[in-house]
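Re: the request from the purification team.
They wanted to know what the chain is likely to look like in 3D before they choose a buffer screen. I agreed to run a prediction and write the result into the notebook, where they can find it.
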Amino acid sequence: TPSYAPATLVATAEALKAQAPAVAQRLERIRALLLVGQADGGNGRAATEVALSFPMSIAPDGAGGLLVGEFAGGRVRHVDAAGVIRRYMGGGLGTKVEGPLAEVAVDSPAGMCRAPDGTVYVADELGARIVAIKDGQARPVAGTGVRGQGAGGGPGTSVALSRPVALATGPDGTLWIGENTRSQDQAGRVL
């Protein structure tokens, strides 16, 4: 079990609270859903009645709801503004790395963020990639799908990622990726 999960979840929740009071209210209403447990189907039920399998990341959906990444469940769930939960992507039903959300697989959504243009990015830690979601479609934007220590400088999908776990976007839409197994040598070079 990764030791950074609770801190990541708390930091993400605090950032969302500071950015959007409406999201903060949703977080309070669905606090019970942020429990480690055996995930059940739950589609169409109140989010507070559904156990999730190691929820590790959250992001606003832009319409008053939240996206919740279930690390152990290998899926992203959507909690709408009314508090109803549904599968959004993953969950063992998809096998593709690109296409409609219902067909796209995600191994372990460790981090998520929402860009200014509405694109949602998902860090798939064990899948060693970053997926962009927009208009009901998903596509890889970074990582090869094979864990590694690739050097930057090329297209995002040609650079191997080790274990992407944290994401953020700047006001201009620049995507920042944090990995938990990269290190630096004494000269400060990324290894």
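For the purification team: The mean pLDDT is 78.
Please add any questions underneath this entry.
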